[in-house]
Design brief:
Blueprint (H helix, E strand, L loop, with lengths): L3 E4 L2 E4 L4 E7 L7 E7 L6 E6 L5 E3 L7 E6 L4 E6 L8 E8 L13 E2 L3 E6 L1
Parallel strand pairs: 2-11
Antiparallel strand pairs: 1-3, 3-8, 4-5, 4-9, 5-6, 7-8, 9-10, 9-11
């Protein structure tokens, strides 16, 4: 089973940018990859997903600010976050699944990283 490790989180001022990475223990070509986030006291929320062909989807509330991408050779998933807002503060999780479709429900994903904290100051 694939293991996922997120990195790149940290503290950033509102309006700033941050790039998250997710390193996988094996080739990710066969997986649909996704990002989720969970703020303190909130439910886990879908951020974005991408398939092997590069087709992707981003949550409506984050479209135009967040971009998901993947490097199948390096077995790495990325999330570029621009124009960050305090409400983006959360733990961001990398996830993967073998089934088809850019699913937005966390229950559809089989493999998860431990998360990386993103904090956006006002």
């Amino acid at each position: 089973q694939v293991q996922l490790v997120e990195s790149g989180g940290g503290l950033v001022q509102a309006g700033g940018s941050l790039r998250l990475s997710c390193a996988a223990s094996e080739r990710i070509l066969a997986y649909v990859m996704g990002w989720f986030r969970q703020a303190l006291g909130k439910d886990r929320e879908f951020v974005a997903a991408i398939n092997w062909a590069g087709d992707s989807t981003v949550s409506d509330s984050m479209k135009g600010r967040f971009t998901i991408s993947r490097d199948n050779v390096k077995s790495t998933l990325y999330l570029q976050m621009n124009s960050l807002k305090p409400e983006d503060t959360a733990v961001y999780f990398c996830a993967a699944k073998r089934s088809l479709g850019l699913n937005s429900f966390s229950s559809d994903y089989n493999y998860w990283g431990q998360g990386t904290q993103v904090t956006v100051s006002s």
